[in-house]
Amino acid sequence: MIAYFEEARPTAQSELHYEDPFQLLVAVILSAQCTDKRVNMTTPALFAAYPDAATMAQATAEDIFPYISSISYPHNKSKHLAGMARKLMEDFGGEVPSDVDELQTLPGVGRKTANVIASVVFNLPALAVDTHVFRVANRIGLTRNSKNPLQTERELVKHIPQDKIPIAHHWLILHGRYVCQARKPHCSECGLTDLCQWFQQSAPKKNSPC
Questions:
Q1: Is 20 marked active-site?
Q2: Which end of the chain is more exposed for a tag (fewer CB within 10 A), N or C?
Q3: For position 67, which CATH number holds?
Q4: Quick count: other Cβ atoms within 10 Å of Cβ 2?
Q5: Positive or negative, the Cα torsion across 145, 36, 117, 174?
Q6: Is there a contact between 177 and 183 (Cβ–Cβ < 8 Å)?
Q7: Which among 50, 48, 102 has a CA at the least distance from the CA of 78?
Q8: Considering 52, 130, 158, 164, which one is annotated as catalytic?
Q9: CB 73 within 8 A of CB 33
Q10: Tally of structural domains, the chain
Q11: Is residue 77 a contact partner of residue 96, using CB atoms and an 8 Å limit?
Q12: Given 63, 112, 158, 184, which residue is catalytic?
């Protein structure tokens, strides 16, 4: 699997647009249950108004809301962003921490978001598991009967070399987004069918996992 992705996607990276760790943190918070495309359409105006933690910390949720109203769950995310920026200033001097546990003390930041920041910004061996990673790992057979994202994360990091973990997150996300899609996987475009547990068991019998 690693050999395939190293050849097929040697430069896999986040599709969110950002210029610094703070902007990536904001974008990842906004991306929960929302497409990266929609987030990228929204963040330019938001970052123009609030380019860093110091400026966003002065804003209220009501100030932020108009900039992200087209995003899913804008009321909650407005509150999260305002609270996140204030805590970032109060507890971390406005600097995004690298520690996964410290990141999770910020409003709106769960384990997945914390792992994204740790891996993308700081190149640490933290593997964020979103719906794509969860689905692809189980479908291919990289994990077996994982019931939740944390189980999937723990199984994957056991077997993926630490130096590959940051990019493996992107490999699996992009594979799930463009090839191994939820309703109709494009198996004819996939280079992993000889390894894929689902394909070996199900493809001869049906064209979709649904």
A1: no
A2: C
A3: 1.10.340.30
A4: 13
A5: positive
A6: no
A7: 50
A8: 130
A9: yes
A10: 2
A11: no
A12: 112
Cβ 126 vs Cβ 165: under 8 Å: yes
- Could you confirm whether 79 is annotated as catalytic? no
Other Cβ atoms less than 10 A from the Cβ of 34: the count is: 17
Task: Find tokens 């974008």 and name the residue.
Answer: 27
Contacts within 8 Å (CB) and 24+ apart, 100-104 = 100/124, 100/126
DSSP for residue 105: T
Could you tell me if 84 and 147 lie in one domain?
no
Residues 25 and 108 in one domain: yes
| The pair of three-digit structure tokens given for residue 36, joined into one six-digit string | 């990266």
State pTM to two decimals.
0.89
Question: Can you give the pLDDT of all 210 residues of the chain as single tens digits?
Answer: 999 999 999 999 999 999 999 999 999 999 999 999 999 999 999 999 999 999 999 999 999 999 999 999 999 999 999 999 999 999 999 999 999 999 999 999 999 999 999 999 999 999 999 999 999 999 999 998 899 999 999 999 999 999 999 999 999 999 999 999 999 999 999 999 999 999 988 755 544 444
Domain finish residue from 72, 89, 120:
120
| 12 φ/ψ sector (left φ>0, alpha ψ -120 to 50, else beta) | beta
Q: Are residues 111 and 46 in the same domain?
A: yes
